[in-house]
Design goal:
This protein is an alpha/beta fold. Helix content is about 35%, strand content about 20%. The chain is globular, with a radius of gyration of 17 Å.
């Protein structure tokens, strides 16, 4: 079944800057090139200690990377809901009610404000506590209701990241595959390079070879050269 991305308004929920590229960077290019509107709601960003050569990345540095990636994709808008070290890597300590309300109606890029036709969020089985909190909050924000009173996007997807394979609970393979053209995949790699503080050499879950390998695997599963995998949570036809 072919999907007309040109008529869609996408709202992507990214726990941190780079999750939107890792999870759906190819689709973001494919949809935007077709004429779709694209909005990205980041939940949090802060100073981060890591295992890079520098050993850290700063919030200001990562906000600068967001701006470069937003220009690269020509997003319609983006926003950070919970900036700062009090929230970054601590979203599991924030009441789900607060995060869900932010996603549902309180953010400038909330579901109520943007009225997206497509919402794309992280998978709930990620080992990362911020990803889990984001997935649970989006699930709550998109609970079934009367469409005359609350906006219901027709398509709700959970994206996958290579790092999500490290989990304790079993999960089936993605049940929706989106074909990526070479330009879509190249745009994803270019965007990830703009997130310079988050890039790593192989073997790493954020290496270019990892992204390519996962795209080739998902493509093979549907008979095309390259694809991204998603879990369809709602598809109103």
């Amino acid at each position: 079944m072919m999907f007309d991305w040109s008529k869609q308004r996408l709202l992507v929920i990214a726990p941190h800057p780079d999750d939107e590229v890792l999870g759906c960077g190819g689709l973001l290019h494919k949809a935007r090139a077709a004429g779709a509107e694209v909005y990205v709601q980041f939940l949090t960003v802060g100073d981060t200690a890591d295992v890079s050569e520098r050993g850290f990345s700063t919030a200001n540095e990562r906000v600068g990377e967001i701006k470069a990636v937003a220009d690269h994709y020509r997003w319609d808008d983006w926003h950070i809901a919970f900036p700062g070290d009090d929230y970054h890597l601590r979203l599991d300590a924030v009441p789900r009610f607060e995060i869900a309300n932010t996603v549902e109606r309180n953010s400038p890029l909330s579901i109520a404000s943007v009225e997206p036709t497509v919402v794309i969020a992280p998978h709930q089985l990620s080992y990362n506590q911020d990803h889990q909190a984001a997935a649970e909050a989006v699930h709550t924000a998109l609970r079934p209701s009367d469409i005359r009173r609350r906006h219901h996007p027709g398509l709700v997807l959970a994206y996958e990241e290579a790092a999500d394979q490290w989990r304790q609970e079993p999960s089936g393979p993605p049940n929706m595959l989106v074909e990526l053209g070479q330009a879509d995949f190249d745009a994803k790699i270019a965007a990830m390079r703009l997130y310079g503080s988050q890039c790593h050499d192989h073997p790493h879950t954020r290496s270019e070879l990892t992204l390519q390998s996962l795209a080739v695997l998902r493509g093979m599963q549907c008979g095309v050269a390259s694809a991204e995998g998603y879990y369809a949570m709602r598809w109103l036809a």
